[in-house]
Amino acid sequence: MTDGIFGVLLRGSVDAAGPYALAALGGIVSERAGVANVALEASLLAGAFAASVAALGGGGIVTVALASLVAGTVVGLAHAAFTVFGRASSIVVGMALNLAALGLTKGLLRVVYGSSANGPSFDLRVSHVASMAFVCALAALTAYALEHTVAGTRLRAVGESRELAASVGFRPRLVQACALAAGHALAALGGATLCLGSGQFQSQMSAGRGFLALALVILGRWEVLPTMVGVLCLSVLEASEVFLQDAFGLPSEVVLALPFLVILPVLALGAGRMQGARIPRFEP
Fold first, then answer.
1. Global pTM?
2. What's the longest Cα–Cα distance across the chain?
3. Least confident segment among 7-21, 90-104, 226-240, 270-284
4. How is the chain split into domains, by residue range?
5. How many whole angstroms from its chain centre is CA 197?
6. The domain at 4-273 falls in which architecture?
7. What share of the chain is helix, strand, coil (3-state, %, to 5)?
């Protein structure tokens, strides 16, 4: 990678893209099955904390990834238990999971590491090239699986109409439960990349990335490629925050809020352009 501003921007964009991209992929998988998923923040936090514990325990990259996958799957199964099988509101359950993950990780930080703010630092890192290749490979694999596999066909069929899917022998509840488990596991991997990038777990380190990822999913019309284009744009914006602050003298609070300030009007303007999009039918 080149030196100077371009090199810093490139490395910062790659670091920022991992959590957004993986959380967005998780949102696509679960929402294409017809379950509104606002609990991506919970998976990011759970995956980040599990990755931190695994890294501090001496685990390598594979161990860290597996730990975050398990944590995300647990969140997904809890989401499915209340939403799919308990028939509770997916929005209410999702927000409850976000709050539970926030409180639980803070509590575990205090119990395990004696701090409610930051965990101990660790030295495990992933190269920018490997991180970028991993995210691109997962995005391509997710797109292919959704469009060209039996599991993807069943998932999309359930998302379009649970009644019709059931009439041809599919099991909508099982499909949705599996989609939630897989979607949250993907998002938890995003939490692992976030934790590895900072070298420690920090309380509330997801910082709204799950909600921004969900907004990108909606803007991308629940399709992988346009969503990843949105991830790229948002990642470049986040990597540019320091330069924007220096160039325009913006307060740090405004700089931190920039992704939200940009995504909200874009989302509002893009909401009217959903005609023709394969929007899942979100059942209450």
1. 0.87
2. 61
3. 270-284
4. 4-273
5. 15
6. Orthogonal Bundle (1.10)
7. 75, 0, 25
